[in-house]
Amino acid sequence: MASLYAPTISNEQLLASFNLRHKKINLDYQYMSSFPYDNIKLLSNINWTTISFTKHDVDRLNNVQGIYMFTFNPYAFSMSNRVSDIILYIGQATDLKVRLNKYFYYPNSKKASDQERRFMVLFFSNFLKVHFFETITYSQSDLDSLEYGLIDSILPPFNLKFHSEFAQAYRRILN
């Protein structure tokens, strides 16, 4: 059943249509380096754990809270030796194992609020990596601040909510 806001589009239609697959990805280093928050340095200062986005690897995780991000290496399809990943989505979870397992069900979701994650998992499923770090000692407000700061600093294409006015304005320019 089609929603007023998100018409029902089959996975086959999504994969076949270039217009539906197209997503702008922010690679503007000048923007990122001049952003008022300096949270990008957190990416290198934190001990991130990386796994492939497979049911087997996710099921082996501990049930702990943390920050996670999905990445994709666009050079995986070329003969290049480059290993740069693009951050597609950043999130937080009170239980990483439970939260990441929910992503395996998004390709079958018809809910309008799930569509961005559905697109991400559908298009990149065989090439996604998950980077995460456990935040056992963080309060909920610290987790929120860290997650929002990273999202606003990096502008991942599958995160739709930005909290700073500067990031919201820049995102409108990209779209």
Molecular structure report:
Helix content is about 40%, strand content about 15%. By secondary structure, the protein is α+β, with helices and mostly antiparallel strands. A four-stranded antiparallel β-sheet has the order 1-4-2-3, with helices on both faces.
Helices and strands in order, then pairings?
Elements: H1 11-16, H2 18-21, H3 29-34, H4 42-45, E1 49-52, H5 55-59, E2 66-72, E3 86-93, H6 96-102, H7 115-124, E4 128-134, H8 140-154, H9 165-174
Antiparallel strand pairs: 1-4, 2-3, 2-4
For this entry, give a set of tags:
single chain; 175 residues; alpha+beta; GIY-YIG endonuclease; 4-stranded antiparallel sheet; 9 helices; 4 strands
By CATH, the topology is GIY-YIG endonuclease
One letter per element, helices H and strands E, the order comes to: HHHHEHEEHHEHH
Strand order of the largest sheet: 1-4-2-3
Question: Which second-level CATH architecture applies?
Answer: 3-Layer(aba) Sandwich
Strand pairing plus helix content: what structural class?
A: alpha+beta
Residue runs with pLDDT of under 50 for 5 or more positions:
27-40
CATH superfamily: GIY-YIG endonuclease
Strand content: 5-15%
The residue fraction in helices comes out at 25-40%
Distance between the termini: 28 Å
Shape: globular
Number of strands: 4
